[in-house]
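Protocol step 4 of 5: obtain the predicted structure for the target chain.
Materials: sequence only (see below). No template structures provided, no constraints applied. The aim of this step is simply to have a reference model before the mutagenesis design in step 5. Sequence pasted as it appears in the construct record:
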Amino acid sequence: MYGWVGDVLGARAGVFEDAALTAFELAFSEDGTRVRRSLGASWGTRFEAVAPVREFSWHKDGRGFAGWYYSATVRDHVGYESWLERDRLILLDRDPRVAAIGSQPFWLHWNDGTRKRRHAPDYFVRLSDGRARVVDVRAEDEVDEATGEAFAATHEACRAVGWEFEWVGRPEPVFMANVRWLSRYRRARCGRPTAVAERLLEVFREPMGLWDGAGLVGERLQVLPVLFHLLWSGALGTDLVGRLMETDSLVWTEGSGWAA
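Step 4 output (structure tokens):
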């Protein structure tokens, strides 16, 4: 957690305890109908598959920038309301532990002791082992007191039902720029033909420059999309943090016993 928000989460830990199951309510779409139930009565819902609770709209004078990202994991479009949320979607899409992603899955309702509050988390993520994770995306310098309190309440609700909660900010810029580039090759078709993919994995068992290795496999215009897909999927590795990818970037086959 970042800064004082982490302190808020720690200070409020356990305030609701088992009472959280009734203190919090979730409003969401069920078979096209909006319903509102206690946390205890609704936590088993597959929130990774429900419709968003609000529209993703873009306004000329607004601060956000809404859109739809095609997720290779979900094989469908997932909404976002800012470039920062779009970047997080890309990272979730690349994470092999992630099985499904739903955006704006529910309104979380609670009373803070003074007034009624509500908050719509950005993403509900289902992991491959069945665990659930709720993700809120906000840059640290854009988290005000009200937002911090909303994140703290969301964390308490998640803990009550065994969900993970994660607040994420801006990713490291060089790493994100590289992953954005690779995301262009996220679709399974970019990994074909299979024979080219297999040959790339063989060639890069001995680490070498990206451009040189691609040339050993065949015509680069045909080989490079497959190479980038393998880098996206993690079958091939390279340094995504130290610098932007170049033709001389060192590439290796993951699991071959070599890493930067």
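Step 4 remarks: The radius of gyration is 21 Å. The longest strand covers residues 25-30.
Proceed to step 5.
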